[in-house]
Design goal:
By secondary structure, the protein is an alpha+beta fold. It has 16 helices and 22 strands. It has helices spanning 57-63, 123-128, 130-133, 137-159, 200-208, 246-265, 278-285, 311-318, 335-347, 376-383, 400-417, 492-501, 506-520, 534-541, 572-576, 586-590; strands at 19-31, 36-42, 45-51, 71-80, 95-106, 163-164, 182-184, 192-194, 213-221, 233-242, 274-277, 298-300, 322-328, 354-358, 364-365, 392-398, 428-432, 437-440, 445-448, 472-477, 480-487, 527-533. The strands form five sheets. It has an eight-stranded mixed β-sheet with strand order 6-9-10-22-21-20-17-11, with helices on both faces.
């Protein structure tokens, strides 16, 4: 087999008049009798190659048998096409290869789908034949970008004095939040490893080890319900630093992202991102990961209904709830459109949606108009000065957290429906000052919002648990959390106190976190860090629909590897080696 000269998609004027060798797949074949045209495809693009009995009789004869996705090698002369034959849609459209020699390296059976039709193919089918899906040039561009960004990140961290250090994949089961995948040990009966949710404790132990600045492109595993931007295994850029405060970490990440976006995409993003507290983010946007590409801030208009005769609103306010509103001035809705928004809100989980539309004369039109004062527009303008005749308010009432979460979802849906989003814009922000604890109504206990190693902000002493703020921060882009981190607890007594609040006694602390607690006793420096979701960054930069598009071999939304048929059944004799056996399944119990 000859040596490849270059890639199909890289043919330029410099190759004209030269004999070269190309390899690739038969993308398209056109037989014109005397001439046979093949679009030859490799990862860099397509090159038209021509077979003729005039300049390659043996190759021409062999070319009659070529079919789609055959793998071939061709050697021939690069020539320019005639001016009227140039294809401006192709990077190599001004050239063609007159083939002298052809070698068929591998044949192909009929494919389950053609490359150019892949966009219309069911995703599970594409994932079943992922190696075919990945042959597409658009997929190559995604993974080329992913490779470039990974390289640029490594380059950045090396220049900033970070050490790249690998941490174990087989580790210990710890109660840090999400469910873990467990791996049985054959040697140690009734014992299990856990796959890491993140290298959290290891990176803190590296700070106790004096590594000072650590980074890892880390594989992480979480046994969670899946969605468009979540997978059971994913990759994060894991960062930890000693002797730092929040600003040190945030500035490092800002510098990283500014550098990477410039090098990889030639995008000039701000060198410093906007800072928003958690309380403000939720009050304005109904989310802790706000999309700032459009306004539509939520407004608290509870005071306008303090003396309302509407009983359901009276009940909400009497129970300590609130009434929030979205002000939409970009469109004058018809009645049928407003009714459809009520249905959309209900599908999002709301019990209902109240709308108020102001006529051109400023009169309030609404299913509850008779309960609204004649000067309602004037009263609304005291809270939302930008409201004017022709505008619409969408109102949701209820417990603050529930109502504002629904308003946040509605905000996103309205922005998408009215085309308010600039999809070429990248709006970053930091969300800071998260709650340290959240109360679990079912379990009747407090949980850590981030994880149990997060430091509280100063002045927490004496405050109710629900009012204590964390030294935690998330970096957000266009409504997606890119990553989150915190300043850690480095004092053993306070760490034990934190574990105690979360329901762990001394024995459980030592069992689950003994190594960390011992390290904290032996001169552990103050430290903090952050983890960025690499898959999510690539998804946003490539405008992909989900992170499955940017992971080479992802799981389906049900957590199944459609190509390898995993997870699968293990023979009982193999389970026995691990001291395990199957319990009766649902079908067994029925029978």
């Amino acid at each position: 087999m000859k040596q490849r000269t270059t890639y199909c998609g890289l043919i330029t004027q410099e190759y004209v008049g030269k004999s070269i060798t190309l390899f690739g797949w038969v993308h398209r074949r056109r037989d014109h009798g005397g001439l046979i045209f093949i679009d030859l495809r490799d990862r860099e693009g397509i090159m038209q190659v021509v077979f003729s009995p005039d300049f390659g009789p043996t190759a021409h004869e062999l070319a009659h048998g070529l079919r789609s996705e055959y793998v071939i090698a061709v050697t021939g002369l690069v020539v320019e096409r005639g001016a009227n034959l140039t294809n401006p849609e192709m990077r190599t459209g001004a050239f063609e290869l007159q083939v002298h020699e052809l070698e068929i390296l591998n044949k192909s059976v009929a494919l389950p789908f053609m490359m150019e039709e892949a966009h219309d193919v069911d995703e599970e089918m594409r994932l079943t034949y992922r190696y075919l899906d990945l042959r597409r040039n658009e997929m190559y561009r995604i993974f080329k970008l992913r490779s470039d960004i990974t390289f640029f990140m490594r380059e950045f961290f090396r220049n900033e004095g970070f050490l790249e250090i690998e941490t174990p994949i087989l580790t210990k089961n710890t109660p840090e939040g999400a469910r873990e995948f467990l791996v049985p040990s054959r040697i140690h009966e009734r014992s299990f490893y856990a796959l890491p949710q993140s290298p959290q404790m290891y990176k803190q132990l590296l700070m106790a080890s004096g590594m000072d600045r650590y980074v890892q492109i880390a594989r992480c595993f979480r046994d969670e319900d899946l969605r468009a931007d979540r997978q059971p295994e994913f990759t994060q850029i894991d960062v930890e630093m000693s002797y730092v405060c929040e600003e040190d970490v945030m500035q490092t990440i800002e510098k990283l992202l500014h550098s990477v976006f410039k090098k990889a995409m030639n995008l000039d993003i701000p060198e410093k991102f906007e800072r928003i507290t958690f309380d403000d983010a939720f009050a304005w946007y109904g989310s802790d990961k706000p999309d700032l590409r459009y306004d539509l801030k939520i407004k608290d208009i509870s005071s306008l209904f303090a003396t309302t005769e509407l009983k359901f609103l009276q009940t909400v306010l009497a129970q300590g709830g609130k009434i929030g509103a979205l002000h939409v001035h970009q469109k004058q809705f018809g009645r049928s459109e407003l009714d459809s928004w009520v249905n959309k809100a209900v599908n999002m989980g709301a019990k209902g949606l109240l709308w108020v539309r102001f006529s051109e004369q400023g009169q309030a039109e609404s299913p509850v108009a008779k309960f609204l004062p004649a000067d309602f527009l004037t009263q609304v303008q005291k809270i939302i000065p930008t409201v004017k005749a022709g505008d619409t308010l969408f109102l949701i009432a209820g417990k603050y957290t529930e109502a504002w979460t629904l308003l946040g979802r509605l905000r996103c849906a309205v922005a998408a429906e009215l085309n308010l989003i600039n999809h070429d814009e990248y709006r970053f922000c930091w969300v800071t000052d998260f709650p340290l604890f959240e109360y679990d109504e079912e379990e009747k206990r407090w949980n850590a919002v981030h994880h149990p190693f997060t430091s509280p902000k100063e002045g927490f002493e004496g405050k109710p648990f629900g009012e204590i703020k964390a030294r935690a921060y998330d970096v957000v882009l266009n409504g997606y959390e890119l990553g989150g981190g915190s300043i850690r607890i480095h004092d053993i007594e306070f760490q034990k106190k934190m574990f105690g609040i979360l329901g762990l006694d001394e024995a459980k602390m030592q069992e689950k976190f003994g190594a960390l607690l011992t390290a904290l006793e032996m001169g552990c420096p103050p430290h903090g860090g952050l983890a960025l979701g690499l898959d999510r960054i690539i998804m946003l930069l490539t405008k992909s629909k989900s992170i499955r598009d940017v992971i080479a071999f992802p799981k389906t939304q049900k957590g199944i590897d459609a190509m390898m048929k995993a997870p699968g059944i293990v023979d009982e004799k193999d389970l026995a080696m691990y001291g395990l056996k199957y319990l009766p399944g649902k079908e067994d119990k029925k029978s």
